[in-house]
Amino acid sequence: MASTGTAAPTLAEIIDVLDAAYPPRLAESWDSVGLVCGDPANSVTTVMFAVDATAAVVDEAITAGADLLVVHHPLLLRGVDTVGAHTPKGALVHRLITAGCALFTAHTNADSAQPGVSDALATLLGLTDLRPLDEKSDGGLDKWGVYVPVADAPAVRQAMFDAGGGSIGDYRECSWSVVGDGQFRPVDDARPAIGTVGTVESVEERRVEMVAPRSARAAVLTALRSAHPYEEVAFDVVETAGLPTDCGLGRIGTLAEPMSLRAFAERVGSRLPSTAWGVRAAGDPDATIRRVAVCGGSGDSMLGAVTAAGVDAYVTSDLRHHVADEHLRAGGPALIDVAHWAGEFPWCAQARDLLDSAFGDRDGWTTRTLTIRTDPWSIGVRPPQD
């Protein structure tokens, strides 16, 4: 790439772009996403993309001089108490660090993001008008209301803003307030900031309201208590309902023209990278397919949602015999089962395009999708036909 005189981005800048596209908050609670190893202050010019950080993938990334390897599946997912070089995964971490190659993972956050893993798969298969199969709400917000003497209201309001309150979309320091009369009577052992023990006190107070992320609840509470003059603060917190979003697991889309299950399965097989697992379909080969659900990765947990959505076919991975059989017996849509790696591989191009769009004009910028097949199944044998 020709030099533009623009400095290479830091790893921290790249992480900001990846986190904006695949927000960590979308990750499932059991998942592990984000930076695995690498210095955020380091410059990055060469980035590789893959589904898995296997030994072969790490070898190729290092040989290519990569500064960053972006993968979908976490290398370190379950509880880890050592990354010693004597362990298979620890050895890969050591090799990456020694070579100066950072490792970043976007897993279930990339599954639920829009666009994400299932969008890449659906688009590759020719589906349009995409919407989530299992919609993820925005999680809702806390609505805070606190009563504070009028003169002290600006300080309390600002403290809550500083702790993360008062943000609505592209607006900051949002609040609402009204003035009223507050009444209280301090009893034994009280140390009132206003009034005296045993005497009913009336104070002109302002009720300050604002919203805040639920994740900021502890910080906002600490801030308002620290800034508030009263010994006991009167406040309430209401959890608002989560609202629909365009994020979530899986996608539902529509084919431009209907086709038979047999023809659609052949399309899936021709557009995904080949694997020993191949492509399997269950259902009437001549059934008409128009509306399709897809889920990159293991998707048998969403068979109920697929049936409820009224689609004609469902494309996913790792479908088990009894689960698939019971689904079809219950009248569920046709199934197309693809190799787990193959169904998620299209995401690599999506993530690559994302970073190329953000940093493609930087000095020395180079990206590449590694085509090493990391599907663990290496041999597919078809029995002779009778």
What does this structure look like?
By secondary structure, this protein is an alpha/beta fold. Helix content is 29%, strand content 27%. The chain has helices at 11-21, 55-63, 88-99, 108-112, 117-124, 153-162, 217-227, 261-271, 303-309, 321-329, 340-344, 346-359, and strands at 34-37, 46-50, 68-71, 102-105, 127-135, 141-149, 176-184, 201-213, 235-239, 248-260, 279-282, 288-298, 313-317, 334-338, 366-369. The protein has a 6-stranded mixed sheet with strand order 5-10-12-13-14-11. It has a 5-stranded mixed sheet with strand order 1-4-3-2-15, with helices on both faces. α3 links the parallel β3 (68-71) and β4. The longest helix has 14 residues, at 346-359. It is globular. It starts with 10 loop residues before the first helix and ends in a 17-residue tail after the last strand.
Oligomer designation: single chain
**Overall geometric form:** globular
Spans where pLDDT lies below 50 across 5 or more residues: none
| Separation, N- and C-terminal Cα atoms | 56 Å
Class by alpha and beta content: alpha/beta
How many strands appear in the DSSP assignment? 15
Within the largest sheet, what's the order of strands? 5-10-12-13-14-11
β-strand amount: 25-35%
Query: How big is the Rg?
Result: 27 Å
Largest β sheet strand count, sense and barrel closure: 6 strands, mixed
Mean pLDDT: 94
Output the helix-strand order: HEEHEHEHHEEHEEHEEHEEHEHEHHE
Helix count, per DSSP?
12
Fraction in helix: 25-40%
